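Lab notebook, design round three. We kept the backbone fixed and only want residue identities now. Task for the bench partner: fill in a sequence for the structure below.
Input structure tokens:
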């Protein structure tokens, strides 16, 4: 029997915040569905900045020796990636963007035109939260731009999206609406 693996990535500095609670829900649902889940918090990892050497295009691994080697190995052995990241200035937080930069050669092969994907066959789920209430978070591009950034990385790597869930208006809400949890669970059914 092939082991079903999920890599759950928290890209938020708040381990007890809204984005983390959304990831907790997804992890719980994935485990109920029979997946072996590995959870990492990017804020607890040592991830240096990309130096732009582009060696990774050839080797498919970054030359910088830090925690990216662990993340790369986990990424390669999973079937599903769940990325939970809040919206920071209509984009992803710096550690998430840094991870994307460092996964360049792992995720894609450089060509003269559009990159060739190297992570085909995998699926992903995006979970995000933002302070701006709905529908303004979407109208003014807050959550939409962050989702576009995450989608761009995963799609260019050859992955298929299983779902996306946005929890808007978190600045005024202490509790996550039950409908958000139901949407997350539906992504993994």
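Proposed sequence:
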């Amino acid at each position: 029997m092939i082991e079903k693996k999920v890599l759950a990535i928290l890209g938020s500095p708040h381990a007890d915040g809204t984005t983390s609670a959304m990831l907790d829900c997804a992890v719980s649902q994935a485990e109920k569905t029979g997946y072996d889940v590995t959870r990492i918090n990017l804020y607890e990892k040592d991830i240096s900045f990309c130096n732009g050497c582009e060696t990774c295009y050839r080797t498919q691994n970054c030359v910088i020796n830090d925690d990216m080697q662990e993340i790369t190995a986990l990424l390669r052995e999973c079937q599903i990636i769940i990325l939970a990241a809040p919206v920071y200035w209509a984009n992803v937080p710096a550690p998430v963007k840094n991870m994307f930069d460092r996964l360049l050669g792992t995720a894609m092969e450089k060509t003269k035109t559009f990159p060739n994907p190297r992570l085909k066959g995998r699926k992903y789920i995006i979970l995000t939260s933002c302070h701006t209430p709905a529908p303004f978070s979407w109208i003014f591009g807050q959550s939409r731009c962050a989702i576009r950034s995450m989608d761009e990385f995963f799609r260019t790597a050859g992955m298929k999206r299983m779902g996306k869930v946005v929890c808007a208006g978190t600045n005024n809400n202490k509790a996550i609406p039950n409908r958000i949890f139901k949407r997350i669970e539906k992504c993994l059914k």
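Keep this in mind before ordering anything: Strands lie at 5-10, 36-41, 80-84, 108-109, 116-117, 123-129, 160-167.
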